[in-house]
Amino acid sequence: MSIARHHAEWLSLLEVSGPFLTMPVLMRVFPQGLDAHDSALHHTLRLAYEEWADNQAGVRPDPAIHTQWVRWVLGNALEIPAEVLAEGQALPPGLSATFGDHGETLRPDMALLDPTTNKARLLVRYYPPAQDLDKPLPGLLWKATPATRMMELLRATDVRLGLVTNGERWMLVDAPRQETTGFASWYANLWLEEPLTLRSFRSLLGVRRFLGVAERDTIESLLKESATNQQDVTDQLGYQVRRAVEMLVGALDGVDKDYGRKLLAGLPTTELYEAAVTVMMRLVFLLSAEERELLLLGDPLYDQYYAASTLRVQLREQADVAGEDVLERRHDAWSRLLALFRVVYGGAEHPDMRLPAYGGRLFDPDRFPFLEGRAPGTSWLDTKAAPVQINNRVVLHLLDALQLLQVKVTDGGPAEARRLSFRSLDIEQIGHVYEGLLDHTARRAASPVLGLVGHLSSEPEIELSRLEEVSAPALLTFLEEQTDRKPAALKKLLDYLPSLFEQDRLRRVCDNDEALYRRVLPWLGLIRQDTFGLPVVITTGSVYVTTGSDRRSTGTHYTPRSLTEPIVQHALDPLVYLGPAQGLPKDQWQLRSADDILALTICDMAMGSGAFLVQACRYLSEKLVEAWDRDGLGEGTAPNADPEESLALARRLVSERCLYGVDKNPMAVEMAKLSLWLITLDRGRPFTFLDHALRHGDSLLGVSLRQLRTFSMAGETARLEGGRQAHFIEAALNSALGTARRLRHSISHLPDRDARDTLAKAARLKEADEVTAFLKLGADMLVAYALKASPCRPNCSCALASWRTLLWMPKASTLPKRDAPRARPSIAVCA
After folding, report:
1. Are residues 612 and 675 in contact, defined by beta-carbon separation less than 8 angstroms?
2. Would you say 520 and 506 are in contact if contact means Cβ atoms under 8 Å apart?
3. What is the mean pLDDT of residues 19-25?
C-alpha cells in the first residue's frame, strides 16, 4: 500500500466536520506513515476499555471509573505527563469565560500546558457517557452542544485546540480565530477494531506533537498549513461536480440522438442543463441526509434497493467483477434513482419500509418529466414512466464525482481517491460547490466543437472552424489566452503523435465521420478527455456544457461560515436582545420573548446559495429555544422536551416566518432552498415550505406602495392628472393587497405535519400570486417608464392608462371578479 493510500485509509475512518489535515501536509510530516503500532499499549487499552464499558453497563455506574478512564487515555495513550496536565485549582487564570447572555461560565476540566510559557495548548472537557457530543445539554438555558461550548471557550480564551469526550467519543475541536471551526472524532471501540485509528489519535494528539517537534510540525501548525489547502479541496469537489453535470448532459443528449432527436424535441438547452444540475442537487441532498441519519439508511430494504449511499458500492463491485464496459449495457441504476426521488417526494407506506412524503419542488417528478420518459404536462400519478436509457456506468461516475475526492498528494503526481463524507462539509461549502455551476449553461453545437485542456477554472470549448481560422504565427498566443497554459506546453501538445488506439477512440467520438476525423486529428493533443477517457468532441447538433456568463455577473460568491457567523451575530444581537442598542454591557442584556423573535423579518436581497440565511436560521433558532425555556411556549407551539427536537422545531418556524431572500438566478433560489432544507429537515415531516419566502427576481429596483398608489417614482410628492384615475387604482390595489396579506399570513401559520399541508400552502401561495399579478405588472410598467431615456411628453400618463386597460383584458386580469373595478376603460395615446 502506498503512503498516500495509508493516509487516505485512516482519514476515511475518522468523523470529520469542517477543515482538517490535508494530504500534502500529511505526506510532508509523515512520509513513512503514522507512528508505529504499539502492541503492548493495545493490549492494556483493551483491558482498560472493557473495565470502563462494564462499569457503564452496570445498574449504578461509578463516576470515578469514568474519570479514571479519561485520565488513563490522556496519560497512557497520549503520553501526557502529569507535570504538564493541569487540573482543577492548578489551572492557570484566564481559562474561563462568562457568557452573560446565557448566564453560564465555561471552564475546562484539564489543560495541557507548555512548560516554557505556562500557556495552554490543549483544553480538555469530559462529560457523562450518556451525553451525545452533538446534542445540547439537558436542563440548561443555553441550548449549545458540548462541541459548540468548547468552540466558544477556545475563542474566548485564545486557545486553538480543545478535546471533548464522553469516554467513547473523543472529539478534537480546532477553533482558529476568524476562521471556520473544524471537528474530528475518534471512537474508543474503533481503536480496538481498527488499530489504525489509535495510531492516528496518538500520532496527532500525543504529547510529542505538542512539545517534542519543531514549531512547523506541531499539530497547530499542521492544521494552519492545511487550512491554506482547504479551498483547493472545495474547488476540486466543485470541478468534479461540474464534470459530472457535463457527463449527464452528454448522456441525455446521446440518448436523444439514439431516439432520432425526438426525446428532447422542443426542450430548451437551458432546461436540460437545469435538469442535470437538479439531479446532482438531489443526490447531494440525499447523501447528506442519509449520512446524518435523517432518512432510512440502515434499513435492509432501503439500503438494498433505494439508498444513494450504497448504490455506488454496489455498482463498483459489479464493475470490479465484470468491468465497467459491462455497466454500459445495464440501465437499472438510473431507474433506481428515479424511484428514490419519487419515494422522497411522495413517501412510502409499506409494512417493511415507511417514509413520509417530503414534497418540495426539488424532487417533484413532474418538474422534468422527460427524465422519466414522460411527455411535458403529464402527471407522475397517472402516466406510466419509461425512464431514459442512462446506463449504469454513467450513474457510477455521477456518484464517484460526489463521494470520491481526487486529491493530488504531490505536485505533478497522480491523484488519490479519498472518500468524502458529507457530514464533514459545512452547508456553506455545499452551496459553494453548486454556485460554481451558475456561470455555466448548455448549448447546442451549430458546428463541431472541441473541449480543450486547461486548468480547473479554464477548460474552454472552441469551435473547430475557429481554430482552423487562426493563422500559424498567432496560434500559440490564441491558445495561451484560451487555456491559460504556457506556450512551451501548448507546443508540445500540438506536436503530440497519437497511438492507433487513441485514433480509434477519436473516430468513435466523431461518429465515424471520416472527414470530421481528419479535421480533428491535428488537434488531438490539445483535446481534454471526458470521465470515460474519450476525447471531448461535440458533433454538430449535440448539446454540451460551457461557460455561460462570468461568475461575477451572476452576483454569487462563496461566503464561508467564518464570515457569516460574526456578521449575523452583530447584526441580529440588537434585534433579539434589549440592551445592545442602549450600549449596556453584555451581562445586562435581556433576551426578547419568543413572539418578538418570530416577528422578525430578515431578508437577503442577493442570497446566492443562502449562506447568510442559513446562519441567521441557526442564530435565531437557538435564541428562540432559549426564550421558550425561559418563558414557556407561545403561539401554540409544543416542542418535545428533547432539546434536539426543540431546536429542530425552532429552525422550521424561523425559516418559515422570519427568513426571506431574492436572487436573480433561478437556480440560486433552488440552492438556497436546498441549504435551508439541510438544516431544517425533520425525519417525520415534509420539507419546510419556502416557496413564499425565497423568490427569483432582481432586487436592484423596487417600488413602494406609495409610489404604486400614485403611479410615480416621486411617491409622496407626486401629483397625477385626474384624481379619478388614482382613486381607481388605489381601490383595486388595496383589495388585492388585503387578500394577498391574508393568504400569505396563513401560509406561515399553517401546520406542516405532512405533504397535504405543503400542498395547501402551495395552493394559497398560487392564489396570492394570482391576486397580485396585476400589481407586479403595474410596478414593472412604472419602473420601465421611469427608466425611459425621455418621456413621451411632460406628465404623460400613457403607462398608467395602459396598466388600467390591461386590468380589463380577460387574459391579463387576475383580480377576482368581486374586486374588479367598474370604471370604463380608456387608452391614452401619445402624440
Report:
1. no
2. yes
3. 84
Distance CA 218, CA 725 (A): 76
pLDDT at 620 (0 to 100): 95
C-alpha cell at 316: 463498483
Task: Tell me phi and psi for residue 392, to 5 degrees.
Answer: -65, -25
Grid cell digits, residue 452: 480543450
Q: Roughly what angle, to the nearest 10 degrees, separates helices 643-657 and 611-631? A: 120
In b/e form, how buried is each residue of 439-469, taking b as 16+ CB within 10 angstroms? bbbbbebeebbbbbbbeeeebbbbebeebee
Could you give the CA distance from residue 804 to residue 3 in angstroms, rounded to a whole number? 75
Cell (9 digits) for 609: 446559495
Q: How many CB atoms lie within 10 A of CB 322?
A: 12
Burial class (CB in 10 A: 0-12, 13-18, 19+), 819: middle
Q: The whole model's pTM is what? A: 0.75
C-alpha angle with apex 777: 771 to 779, nearest 5 degrees? 110
Query: Who wins on pLDDT, 489 or 774?
Result: 489
Does 421 have pLDDT greater than 80?
no
Residues in the chain: 831
User: Can you tell me whether residue 727 is helix, strand or coil?
Assistant: helix
Are residues 153 and 160 in contact, defined by beta-carbon separation less than 8 angstroms?
no
Residue type, 698: D
CB 263 within 8 A of CB 370: yes
Burial class (CB in 10 A: 0-12, 13-18, 19+), 38: middle
Mean pLDDT of the chain: 84
Residue 662 contacts residue 700 (beta carbons within 8 Å): no
Amino acid occupying residue 167 = G
The three state secondary structure string of 248-316 is HHHHHHHHHHHCCCCCCCCCCHHHHHHHHHHHHHHHHHHHHHHHCCCCCCCCHHHHHHCCHHHHHHHHH
> Is the distance from CB of 665 to CB of 697 less than 8 angstroms?
no
pLDDT tens-digit readout, 698-747: 877 778 877 877 777 775 555 544 344 455 667 778 888 888 889 888 88
Question: 171 and 145 in contact (C-beta within 8 Å)?
Answer: no
The identity of residue 389, as a single letter, is: Q
Instruction: Give the strand order in the sheet containing 110-113.
Output: 15-17, 182-187, 169-174, 161-165, 120-126, 110-113, 85-87
Mind listing the pLDDT tens digit for each residue in 219-261?
A: 999 998 887 666 666 677 788 888 899 999 999 999 999 888 8
Q: Crossing angle, helix 611-631 and helix 561-576, to 10 degrees?
A: 40
Name the band, by pLDDT with cuts 50, 70 and 90, for residue 830: very low
Are the C-beta atoms of 530 and 246 separated by less than 8 Å? yes
Q: What is the pLDDT of residue 225?
A: 87
DSSP letter string, 591-636: EPPHHHHHT--EEETT-TTTHHHHHHHHHHHHHHHHHHHHH---TT
Distances (CA, A) of 281 to 214, 301, 384, 559: 44, 24, 25, 19
- Quickly state the pLDDT bin for 167 (edges 50, 70, 90): very high
Phi-psi region of 255 (alpha: psi -120 to 50; beta: other; left: phi over 0): alpha
CA distances to 341, 363, 364, 514 from 381, rounded to whole Å, are 14, 14, 11, 47
